[in-house]
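At this stage, I needed to go through a protein sequence along with its fold in token form, as given directly below:
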Amino acid sequence: MTPVELSRTVLHAVRCAVDEGQLSVAVPERVVVSEPGAGGCGEYATNVALQLARAAGKPPRTVAEILRPRLIAADGIEDVVVTGPGFLNFRLGQEADPLQDLVREIRAQGQRYGHGDALAGQVLALRVPYEVRAEVVADALVRIVATQGGRATVEHQGGRAAVQHPGGRAAAEHGELVDLRPVPAPEDPAPLGPDAARWALLHPAPHDRPRITADHLVQREGNPLFRVRYAHARVRSLGRGAARLGFAAEPGPLSSAEADTAGTPAFQAPAPQAPAVHAPALHTPLSDYPRILTAAATHRAPDRLARHLVTVADAVLPFLTCVLPIGEEKPSAAHRARLALAEAAGTVLAGGLSLLGIDAPEHL
């Protein structure tokens, strides 16, 4: 069960409790599921009971206990423990491997991973001044909003008039009017080239002044754009290297000790195991990608997506050193699984860069 699937399961439990009259609350659009914090247990946890407590007029632990039996009955959940003021902690079935499930989900969906319906049916009119940063932000938002089922159009100041709705909320004639006024670029970013220029304008938060400097072109660790594009290029390079060695990606256990080792003579010492210690660090940024994409769309903030791609790159780069066999090591099921995980990260990086309008190079 992936974090996305578990989030849907929790939402279903809330809806059932509401339908049966045990909770009187508005069912939230989504539920955040993450790794347990201090004092937690299991693979995942959620604070949904704390979020619903005030509206329900009940203590958070009471809300959690109402949801608990419905969650325990769900397929793939071994146990649910309530800790602290009302956190729900999940222990998945013994056969479940959340990271494997996540890799399979990303492989199945490809660059559509993270797409949802949070803005289904909504039309946004993005009104921007005649300024390069505002233009680039609006261009990225058109694509990001589309990933959540919405549609965005771009118009410039002085275009069609806005209609004032009750409560002072401005909206365009055919959709919600959104004024985009990020802090302007201090100078023309065009000399940086299209990719570095877009990154320089999109990576900072809208209220921060973008830096238009040659630092965005330097191929070194201190350049976030370089790390993101280099991580993607390295993943693609590993895929080519694996093909030359005669194996392909396949989700499975990441450790050689857990992988299929059939056919190895009993007297033969096992090959040195390339540690997969960095693999768990990838789980959270990859599973968080749908949430980040939704937030970037609903808050009109492509910078959230840009910064998350840096998080994914920083998590995957240390892991890439153990993907291919080392020395005399033969390709195994563990190597196929590591390659599948690396390619899942590459898919997220490529998809995110594409939404920002930035090239994801195969070679760098």
Remarks:
- The CA atoms of residues 207 and 263 lie 60 Å apart.
- The chain is about 45% helix and 10% strand.
- The longest helix spans residues 333-356.
